[in-house]
Amino acid sequence: MLHFSEDPTITLFEPHVAATARQREAYVWAVDDRNAPSYWFPRQCPRAMAWTSPATLTVDRDRIIGAGGGERVHAIEYGWLEALRTTTVFAYRFAADRFRPLGEAAFVATEPVEPLGPPEPVGDLLACHAEAGIQLRVLPNLWDFWDQVIVSTLDFSGIRMLNALPPRG
Predict the structure, then answer these.
(1) Rounded distance, CA 18 to CA 25, Å?
(2) Domain annotation covers residue 9
(3) How far apart are the C-alpha atoms of 157 and 144, rounded to whole Å?
């Protein structure tokens, strides 16, 4: 299990209720390797992400991801590009047996959790995307892209979308 943070000094993760949480139970949050790329961003950076699944129609894949774009696309706004290039993100590792799944992408613990060791810098966040074959799209505004993604047959996730520029229109 992994947790990503810009703070390399955390020695104990305490369950808490995030300000943006839909649930009221206090958790320590983590993700698995499959969902880690969704967190290769500065914490507050809004991001719209989409990827293929067995249910994805070719027309949606071609329209949203595009020819030569691989199986996954992440989009951010131009205003966040410098932060993406300069922010250091750290990966904390946890023992999996302390966590249970919550939904399809997250794992939670209800008791305090100690990392297995010191956090590791994730490295160049742009390079992480390139090495993983994930298309990184930089847009003036996320909302037109997001509006197309959420009505497609692609799987998707939007994180910190409230930090995005307002929809144009």
Answers:
(1) 10
(2) yes
(3) 15
Query: Does some domain include residue 169?
Result: no
Percent of the chain with pLDDT over 70: 100
Distances in Å between the Cα of 102 and the Cα atoms of 17, 23, 75 are 14, 11, 25
Q: Total domain count for the chain?
A: 1
Give the amino acid at 121. Answer: P
Q: For residue 105, how many other CB atoms are within 10 A of its CB?
A: 13
Distance (Å, whole) CA 38 – CA 122: 13
Structural domain contains residue 93: yes
Q: Cβ(142)–Cβ(75) under 8 Å?
A: yes
**99: containing domain:** 2-163
pLDDT in tens, 79-97: 999 999 999 999 999 999 9
Can you tell me the mean pLDDT for 21-26?
86
> Does pTM top 0.70 for this prediction?
yes
Per-residue DSSP letter, 151: T
